[in-house]
């Protein structure tokens, strides 16, 4: 048996008119990853596979992407996109008698349904641990949440549930489930499909990164893993399996570079006409975007698109945070990578 | 070097948005090269040929070399395609020079070609970044404009140089292009036009970028002793240098220097055994205005950060102390990718023979051409002299 030891939520930011908006490069997967990332680094590595239950549209993302993200073997279970699926996933995770913690992630993106509110944009993560001493995890502050205007069935249920469960006996939440099981069907599949169809299916015309190479690159692209050379100490990023400093072909081992805190060494803003065709959808929808060259660590530099820019634009010396976001669609699926955001001031919640 | 190579003929199409297809352009440039040989030449004497082309748009991405032998009217000629992105022409020229220097050939044809404007806008943008790093730079949303935008931002931040230095590069090259009947843009612009244009990749705007052009160029190379039988004024190739660097800018230690150019220049000057002060004018790879400033520094004609003041002083104007890009450069003459490096050699052939007409650089005796692939991943530098 497992009990709920932690709940974490991620909601898109509010626009200036008060609407909760999913930016163009966010989707169910990136939001689920964002909330998972807040927890993952602080957990002790389990000895076996991690149980991950996915509820909502993020479950459409294939296993290998989730595996790269978690960096560990996964046993993935997939539910539908409704509250009933969430309940089922939580009950199933709680009933499991295995020794490892389990994650349940619910994430949804709806369409803005009018001024003042949107339906179910966000992600909630539940961490369940075996009975006995809870894993040593710091309790992170909740995001600034305004829970009342959420309408998405799975998320709505998740928030209600986790609010009630927070600090309470998990047995209570399991028995206190009152949501209408039929509510899951209310997620408007057509709305989701319309948003997700945006540009998906673009056919490569030359500058083509095959899916296999994209998958190969994800350790570096998503987790900022680099090679550290035992002989000369140089860092090689992205991973090459050899040392760029001294040319050593062996004796390199992977190191995790910090995901946040890198420094801008150059920045440009790409105006209309300056973008590769794959990013036409982005320029059409959201206008110019910035690209920054960032020093992640000495000798390790990454070219990152910016998801947001500081007031007045990026400048050399600015510090960046990074988040997983959509890059562009290719061959029927979205490609994902980390993008840069202004690093929040010391102590602020991202 | 056993056999010093010399240019004995050169041909060039108009550059721009042209009605002609790639085969017609190639034919025209090659015919022009043969026709320019002072005492005439039997085509059948050519024993080796190189074609520089990227194959922009994918119209003939493989085996394009065969087109050169077809359009030159030389069936059976061994022909090799050279592809180093925008430096394809410079590297094809280098291959041609080596083929002559080896002693194995007495007449070598080098041609460069690109047909770009028949692609729809979206496909042009798709292809404009195919020679950059695909996995990282491209997926961050960069084409070459974006990569050079990053470099320009770093350059302006590192040095006490303002955007007017970039604008002056464009103004000066348009002024030169206005005198070149082959140029894509034959009109003058003011610095303010450059500074006020819409930004493509800040700090670079529309007028900081070279155009997408069609065009072809060709040169004929012969060993020095044979060259004298074709013309009294061959243009000798004193040295070629070349270098390559990391493909992705993010993997290079310095953003505001192209190591490939530095290595290529070092090799070329070492073999030519001349000082930089002996060079009468330069043809440099100004695909973006920032690239001309980097070139002046990397080639050793200005100190770090010194190319801006040098340009603003007027020294690089056609009538200045060190004329740079008297044909208008890529910026005004145009940049049909594979043709550019060969086109630079064409310009040197005209200038050193005193045949450049209204854009003639006075007293031109020695010249240097500089051709860059991508944002400095490859570079070729060639030094020429006459007499």
What can you see in these coordinates?
The complex is a heterodimer of chains A (350) and B (387). The model of chain A is unreliable at 14-20, 112-119, 135-153 and 165-203 (pLDDT under 50). Chain A has helices at residues 28-40, 63-70, 83-95, 153-165, 170-175, 189-196, 211-223, 280-286; strands at residues 2-10, 50-56, 74-78, 102-108, 122-130, 225-229, 235-236, 252-256, 262-270, 289-297, 300-305, 319-330, 333-342. In chain A, α2 (63-70) runs parallel beside α7 (211-223) and α3 packs across α4 (153-165). Chain A folds into three domains: 2-196, Peroxisomal Thiolase, Chain A, domain 1, CATH 3.40.47; 200-223 and 259-350, no CATH class; 225-257. In chain A, a hairpin with a 2-residue loop joins β10 (289-297) and β11. With 350 residues, chain A is α+β, with helices and mostly antiparallel strands. Chain A is globular, with a radius of gyration of 21 Å. By secondary structure, chain B is of the alpha/beta class. Chains A and B meet through β9, β10 and β11 of A and α4, α5 and β5 of B.
Strand order of the largest sheet of chain B: 3-2-4-7-1-8-11-10-9
Biggest β-sheet: strands ordered side by side in the sheet of chain A = 1-5-4-2-3
CATH class of the largest domain in chain A: Alpha Beta
How much is the radius of gyration of chain A in Å? 21 Å
Count of separate structural domains of chain A: 3
N-to-C span of chain A? 33 Å
The SS-based structural class of chain B is: alpha/beta
Our estimate of the beta-strand percent of chain A is 25-35%
Note the main sheet of chain B: 9 strands, mixed
Q: Count the DSSP helices of chain A.
A: 8
**Low-pLDDT segments, ≥5 res of chain A:** 14-20, 112-119, 135-153, 165-203
Uncertain ranges of chain B: none
Shape of chain B from CA axes?
globular
List keywords for this structure.
heterodimer; A: 350 residues; alpha+beta; Peroxisomal Thiolase, Chain A, domain 1; 3 domains; 5-stranded mixed β-sheet; 5-stranded antiparallel β-sheet; 13 strands; 23% helix; globular; B: 387 residues; alpha/beta; 2 domains; 9-stranded mixed β-sheet; two-stranded antiparallel ribbon; 13 helices; 35% helix
